[in-house]
From TrEMBL:
Essential cofactor(s): Zn(2+)
GO cellular component annotations of the record: cytosol
Protein name (database record): adenosine deaminase
MF-aspect GO terms: adenosine deaminase activity; metal ion binding
Record carries keyword Acyltransferase: no
Protein family according to the UniProt entry: Belongs to the metallo-dependent hydrolases superfamily. Adenosine and AMP deaminases family.
Key words, A-Z: Hydrolase, Metal-binding, Zinc
Record PANTHER family: ADENOSINE DEAMINASE (PTHR11409)
Pfam families the UniProt entry points to: A_deaminase
Family matches, as InterPro entries: A_deaminase_dom, Ado/ade_deaminase, Metal_Hydrolase
Biological processes, Gene Ontology terms: adenosine catabolic process; hypoxanthine salvage; inosine biosynthetic process
Length: 373
């Protein structure tokens, strides 16, 4: 099993955060491998790895990921994607991914990944999607047998620096009734605006496929504007640099008075969800304009201003984290309590790419779980 600790309790009432029902909207398949699984898959494929044991591999990922640069952070995925090039490897990783989400208290997860990165050993795009879906379904069955209920869907992702987005969009449509719930673009953000993929986004809009776009992480307002205009994004992957469109007018001992620019106003008023990932945002330098500690993260300001903020792990392996841990870190930084945690989960349920009836069911599960806490 993944060695990340999961025993985090809420200060004050001692609630075990792991036991609370949660929604995961931003979690990368190739960022959630168990270190031992990575070692075993690498051995099967004859690949070299930078450590000989799981603990050493965890340390290597932590060191490589804490560079303060998204470009450097992304290089760690060369290793994880290398072991995810066979049907068996993809299915195993997806199965264990869902198992680990369920242990962490996640009741619904959207799992994003880029099929175009898993073709090196001869698999076709449809074959890799089918292999991942098989693993997801096995993980759901495993969780059910252990008394844990979880649902999960695929967010098929195109790499923004490549030119296959229309092909990947068409792939998403082919599998929309077989596990795929939406579309994303990811990869190096600066210099690769969503407008490069306008044809793919137009196609998806015509097919009524919901879209989230990585924007406002390694680039600023221009990237967010393009995600909203060209991508018709219903959510922003990370989106934290929307805070660049906030103007602090004045402060006193008790209050901060802020005005919103047009982009921020649109995102807040239209309840476009921000898929924030606190630990990852520190590692990649996404919040460097505000500081280098979690307490500097604009998450709390955005929350207080009424943005639809959600909490996510992004890459559990690279960040050495879990959704439970991310909530605990935010609580430590900003003093959040059970009511705040419930709000974050309700935000995520409302922003999920499920049909309305299913979203309402998630809301009931969250409310029931928090009432019992």
């Amino acid at each position: 099993m993944n060695t990340i600790p999961t025993e985090y309790r809420l200060e004050g009432d001692g609630t075990n955060i792991q036991d609370l029902p949660k929604i995961s909207l931003h979690d990368h398949l190739d960022g959630g491998l168990r270190p031992q699984t990575l070692l075993e898959l690498a051995d099967e494929l004859g690949l070299e790895v930078p450590a000989s044991d799981a603990e050493g591999l965890e340390t290597w990922f932590a060191e490589q990921s804490n560079s303060g640069s998204l470009v450097e952070y992304l290089k760690t995925f060369d290793l994880t994607t290398a072991v995810m090039q066979t049907r068996a490897g993809l299915t195993r990783v997806a199965r264990e991914f869902v198992q680990d989400l369920a242990v962490d208290g996640v009741i619904y997860g959207e799992i994003r990944w880029a099929p175009e990165q898993h073709l090196a050993r001869g698999l076709l795009l449809d074959e890799v999607v089918e292999a991942v879906q098989a693993g997801i379904e096995q993980g759901i069955d495993d969780a059910r047998h252990q008394g844990r209920g979880i649902r999960a869907g695929q967010l098929v992702t195109a790499m923004r620096h490549n030119d296959r987005s229309l092909e990947i969009a068409e792939l998403a449509v082919r599998h929309r009734d077989r596990g795929v719930v939406g579309f994303d673009i990811a990869g190096p953000e600066a210099g690769f605006l969503p407008s490069r993929h306008r044809t793919a986004f137009d196609f998806l809009a015509a097919q009524f496929v919901p879209v989230t776009v990585h924007a406002g992480e390694a680039d600023g307002l221009d990237s967010i504007r393009s995600a909203l205009f060209d991508g018709r994004a219903l959510r922003l992957g990370h989106g934290v640099r929307i805070a660049e469109d906030l103007m602090i007018e004045r402060q006193d001992d008790e209050n901060t008075y802020v005005s919103l620019g047009p982009v921020a106003q649109w995102v807040r008023d239209r309840e476009i969800a921000l898929e924030t990932s606190p630990s990852s945002n520190l590692q990649t330098g996404a919040i460097a304009a505000w500081g280098d500690e979690l307490v500097d993260h604009p998450f709390d300001l955005l929350y207080q201003l009424g943005f639809r903020v959600t909490v996510n792990a992004d890459n559990r392996l690279q960040s050495g984290t879990s959704l439970t841990r991310e909530l605990a870190l935010l609580s430590d930084a900003f003093g959040y309590d059970l009511e705040d945690f419930e709000t974050f989960q309700l935000n995520a349920a409302a922003a999920s790419f499920l049909p309305l009836d299913d979203r309402e069911e998630l809301v009931e599960l969250i409310q029931d779980g928090f009432d019992r806490a």
